Amino acid sequence: MTSSTTSTATPSRHHFERRIQDVKLSKTYDYTDRPHSSLTDDANFRDLNSVVMDYLVSEGYPSAAQRFASEANVQPTSGVDSIEERVEIREAIHLGEIQTAIEKINELNPMLLERDRSLHFALLRLQLVELIREGIGLPVDDSKTLAAMNFAETVLGPRAAPNAQFLDDLERTMMLLMYDYTNIPDEYADQLEPQFRKDIAKRVNEALLKDQGERTKARLYDLVRLRAWSEMKAREMKKDIPEHLSLGLESGHGQESSHSNGEGEAMVA
Hints:
- 55% of the residues lie in helices and 0% in strands.
- By secondary structure, the protein is mainly alpha-helical.
- The protein starts with 14 loop residues before the first helix and ends in a 33-residue tail after the last helix.
- The model is unreliable at 29-46 and 250-269 (pLDDT under 50).
């Protein structure tokens, strides 16, 4: 009688993975005095703590940034109060409370919307969308529908008249008044989707960051793009690398996932 045994030996790692494991990255270099240097010309960009802090600041995680600053001895490039103000503006836009968002923007930066007419128009147009949302399916003479039409005529109309793109956007938004929720064509219905609010919130966040002298997008995104480009080039050159290179973001089930830090949704791009 013969018996068979199942091997329990751990599979050997690919030599490329062993090389990655041996890389030692700096956690202490502070590049915050060079916030606008590019990824390619910053030899000390490998500072992990600064990369994490940069992400927390630009994406809007004030509590996490404050904790991380204390634990890692890395100071955010802007104050926590400023991050919280941007988060409040983002949340107001996500909730469709556009007038509140505009007022908060003006409190934080009174000249921003005056200088950025396109962003101001986008916010006002979103405010019109929210007014139309309340009156969709109601009679034309309903007070909510009349309020939306009056807002379009008195607030958006004068701003759109001299600008062809503004005028096209306004006309597309006004088309929502022609339908009820059951038959809005896709070419107009996207304005009622949550993503429409998020896109405007993203533009507002980037404009505020730029005005504060901050990067408008976290450096972590540059790293991810550089990593993807490097892998593509390595495969094109037939380099000996593993079939699958993980970003290291797998959940317990082996799926790549995003993680929440308990402060709600980040300001993702």
